[in-house]
Amino acid sequence: MTDAAQFQDIADPVTLETLRQLTELPTPVVSLYVPTARSRPESERAPLELRALLDPAREQLAERGLTDDETDALLAPVRALQEDPVVWSEQAEGLAIFASPGGMRSYRIARDVPASVTVGQVPHLLPLVPVAAGDDRYVVLTLSQKQVRLFEATPHSITQIDLGDTPADIDDMERRNVRQTQLQHQHQPRGGGGGQTASHHGHGGAADIADIQVDKFVREVADGVRNRVGRTASAPPIVLAAVAEYLPKLKETGQLPTLQEEIVAGNHEATSPAELLERSRSIAAARLADDRQERRDRAAELLGTGRATLDPRSALAAAREGRAGELLIDPQAVGSADDEATALDEAVAAALLTGAELHDVPDLPQGAQLAALLRY
């Protein structure tokens, strides 16, 4: 087992596609959030917290006209989960549970959540937006001639990901180049064409040749990473873990616009994912904070032009009509009244179904819980 595999976070993957699928659950949907813990004795309180939510869940279902038998059937998987000690032995910081006539889904999340239960026509997704939006996601690239590794990270987790077409080391690059040359020769036409291969005799020594190979290696790494994580300014920040000489070489390629100026300096061929996370977290945090501030500033600017709204009901209408391009949501958004909380959840569901972006942005203008940036 690799070191990276040993450091897989216990939290379940939750993406915007996960949220979109949740919006398709048959109604009514019971959404339960339970604060959990990774170790005892704190973890022993979680099943009790969930059991305390079942009575209010029954009451809300009864208010919607469900019979006792229908309610028992809908909540049966939740009760079974609550009584299963194995479930509670491996938890993260929070647990999200969604029960509907179509069954139950649960997700361990690396985020503290207060205990809550909501029954509605759409799932209560607001607490999952900060997890799914990926606004705290970044990439760690470890680079040396002997080893290249790529990690996807958040402040709480780090996971090694496939390199794609990025060379795994400088020897891997050279093997690929040899194979490519052989294939080219195989497909060249035989016989005379009068063409001759010119020979060029340079004056560079072995050191010059080695430098040329390293530069080529860095360019191919940059190309591979670009293809893997994206080339635009909206791609996640990339934190380099390598000796300092690689940073200017990577920047010179122009392929990685989100490469950070600060690096985790040194040779990291033997550095564990846990240590990489610890040493890269603060570097990425500064860039992620800048990204959130840019979105905040854009919302404030658009408010003066009629191209943004802070009202959840107006945001809901815009999302349903496909006019909402982005929803910026405060991570603590809950709604100040039941109808406003419902509008927030319905706006999120409509945004997911009409292709709007969702972003986790605290401290929105005027203390709003949501800002919808409109396409028109």
Biggest sheet strand order reads: 7-6-5-8-9
The assigned CATH architecture of the largest domain is 2-Layer Sandwich
Structural class computed from helices and strand pairing: alpha+beta
Reading off the top of the CATH hierarchy, the class of the largest domain is best stated as Alpha Beta
**C-alpha Rg, in Å?**
26 Å
Q: What's the β-strand tally?
A: 13
For the largest beta-sheet, the strand count, sense and barrel status come to: 5 strands, mixed
Overall outline: globular
Helical fraction: 40-55%
Outline the low-pLDDT stretches. Answer: 1-7, 192-202
* First-last Cα distance: 52 Å
Helix-strand topology string: HHEHHHEEEHEEEHHEHEHEHEHEE
Region (Disordered): 178-204
InterPro entries: Bact_RF_family3 (IPR041289)
Write the layout of secondary structure elements.
Layout: H1 3-6, H2 16-22, E1 29-35, H3 46-63, H4 68-82, H5 85-89, E2 94-100, E3 103-109, E4 116-120, H6 129-132, E5 138-144, E6 147-153, E7 158-160, H7 170-186, H8 206-229, E8 238-242, H9 246-253, E9 264-265, H10 273-303, E10 308-309, H11 312-320, E11 324-329, H12 338-353, E12 357-360, E13 370-374
Parallel strand pairs: 5-8, 8-9, 11-12
Antiparallel strand pairs: 1-2, 1-4, 2-3, 5-6, 6-7, 10-13, 11-13
Region (Disordered): 178-204
InterPro entries: Bact_RF_family3
Pfam family, one: baeRF_family3
